[in-house]
Amino acid sequence: MRIGRRLESLVISDIRAMSRKCDAVGGINLGQGICDLPTPPPVADGARNAITANRVVYTAPEGILPLRQAIARKVERLYGLTYDPASEVVVTSGATGGFAAACLALFDPADEVILFEPYYGYHLNTVLTFGLSPVLVPTKPPAWSFDRDALRNAVTDKTRAIVVCTPSNPSGKVFTNEELDFIATLAEERDLIVITDEIYEHILFGDKRHVPLATRGRARERTVTLSGFSKTFAITGWRLGYLTAPAELARRITVTHDLLYVCAPTPLQHAMIPGLEMSDAYYREMTASYTTKRGILCDALADAGLTPYVPDGAYYVLADIRKLQSGGASTSRAAADLLLEKTRVASVPGSSFYRDPVGETLSRFCFAKDEDVLVEAAKRLRSL
Q1: pLDDT confidence of 30, banded at 50, 70, 90?
Q2: Rounded Cα–Cα distance for residues 79 and 121 (Å)
Q3: Is the pTM of this model over 0.85?
Q4: How far, in Å, CA of 348 to CA of 178, rounded?
């Protein structure tokens, strides 16, 4: 039987693989960003009401208009950006679905796309899946800053886009205004599209504030901004995201989103309208909760000798796992396996986010867990 070879090198992600290993031993999964926290009642009730009202048929591929209107209001209220809900807002099957639709719609095979390293693995593999060429620009801890000359030199005649993830998965980096301005200026100079993944926009720590790249200079006219509801409302399995973009880009992305997914889940779209109407108190409470959980995990990692790079945003921590490697685990995957064996706590090997060998010295931990579960995980980590 002949099977196509174009994607034969792709395998299930280490994120998924570690979740399966964790389930097999009944461990605590701090690997995958599952976010198994309670769904806010207005969101859960909105879904139930939509199902009861039989709002279950196909929607337009760009999503229901009332939700797109609510998204446009939110973006304008928070960031001062105005988007036409009829032509510049697209509801997608998750932010990853939005990214896939954008890559298929906007780029041709062999086009180069710049990613910052460490990268989100689904970004890299989506780029590869559509026959695009990833070009990696490293960011360096502890601030995860990038060399501006390295970014400028990464742009060639084949480059079509720069991908930015802020707050970042997996490093928790929040791009500064100066960094965003440099990217915006470079994109304009070299006629590039910028795709920004901002799904962790509401999960920030200390004095950090989320600044969309589309607000910088004239970046709006060439920026596709991805976000979603999974992380903010703890509904990762609902697969509901959205994007904002100039009308022509949004139109093309809508066509490919229709091809790939037909539409985002109908009753869940209706559920997000009351979700977007929740008060600012919800976001303040979420930030306070994640700040506490960040401290629980980072303190435990430090006590265990797995030095954490404390994040400024999102709900992940990259930690130095060379202590485990001194015990014979020569790779980050082997170290993550050893940690799971010793503590029944799962993490994700750093090689999932790097091509650079430095990834072999790191592992990613997620603190989007119930606090009691996280406290138990911290106790297990300290047993090292």
Answers
A1: very high
A2: 28
A3: yes
A4: 31
